[in-house]
# Entry
Amino acid sequence: MDVLAPVLKFTPLKLLMLALLVGGLILAAIGLRSNLTATKELPKELAGILLPAPRDLQPFALTDHLGAPVDPARLRGGWHFFFFGYTHCPDVCPLSLGVLAEVFSQLRKDPKGVKDVHAWFVGVDTPRDTPQHMKEYLPFFDAEFLGVTGEPAAIQAFAKQLGAFYSIDPDPKNPEQPLITHSSAFFLIDPQGRFAGILQPNIHTPEVMVERFLRIRRHYGETS
# Structure
């Protein structure tokens, strides 16, 4: 009884006050943890470009035009611009890849360069977007651009993770050349291998893209 005596001296009011105090400390600890793990608020110039929070990618297995595997592990440790198109595209792809080539040309003038920044062209027209064809096609824009190929279902699943729209429909007038519609967006993957944001060549000039991308890197805590 001597051991319990101090506890028994607490009145119901004191016990209630003690419970409120302990509860407040727990809530304060939870709030502190939430503040420490919260996503950094986006600067206004990055709103509409970066996602509110980067999105983890589900496993995928594709191949680059040189025969090397492309999977989530390969994307970690650098920044990546992904563009979905097809090598026989008469307009959107050449224009968009030309813009991306100009972005990379300007980034190479930055002290940090593009040693950890990569551009990927995902060929959605798999019968014609062969590794050999992409090997011949991409150097017209930039010798370091990499083509990506794979099973149609695997490409479609990867595109769906990024919200990259494209459709392939038969052309009754030309069965050998399907009608392909696709977006012109560049999908940005961060150094943790997460889907981070979107840049739009039909909205942003190359100069603006470079400025925004460098701003994104500073937002991530990187310095040039």
About this structure: Residues 5-37 form one domain. The beta strands are 50-56, 62-64, 69-70, 79-85, 117-123, 146-149, 166-169, 179-182, 186-189, 194-199. Residues 1-39 have pLDDT under 50 and may be disordered.
